[in-house]
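Late entry, written up from scratch paper. The run itself happened at the end of the previous shift, but nothing got recorded in the book at the time, so transcribing now.
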Amino acid sequence: MQTKLGSLIESLINIVIGCGVALLSQIVIFPFFDIYVSLTTNLYIGAWFTFISFVRGYIIRRWFNAHLHLTAQTIANYELLKWK
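Output as recorded:
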């Protein structure tokens, strides 16, 4: 089972990489939609989406981790009862 710290570190690394990809995407894609903003504005937009992505990723990771752990315990307990 992944620890909370492990989830936090994984989420941070994922977000740092995603932030760079998002910023480059904004710079390339925005002009196709006639959206022209400064680099500073692109950084602010990216920062907000990065924060949202970090929180979302951490919460989903912890939720899945807890539910998968519970499911694994349930299956293990069932298997133990079946063999008795």
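The chain has a mean pLDDT of 82.
(Scratch paper discarded after transcription.)
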